[in-house]
Amino acid sequence: MNKSELIKTLAEENDLPLDEATTVVNIFVDAMKETLREGNRVEIRGFGSFKMKDYAGYTGLNPKTGEAVHVKPKRLPFFRAGKELKEYLNE
After folding, report:
1. Domain 47-91 has CATH 1.10.287.470
2. In the predicted model, what is the mean pLDDT of residues 20-44?
């Protein structure tokens, strides 16, 4: 499911106009992004949690040339599925 399919499902199941459903989904996604950007954790009970992980820079190799390449440090989002979601998927 992608974002537009989520919006369509929300609109259909709650008898909402598409523009209202779009606004709701955008507010939800934007709030999650901002919370993660601030370094905080997002937890959706029964579904899972998102947090940021910091990765140190390192020296890697270009697979084509074998040349050493410096990879910059980065922050990436990490998702951990909640217990209820795991149980639901393994019924």
Report:
1. no
2. 97
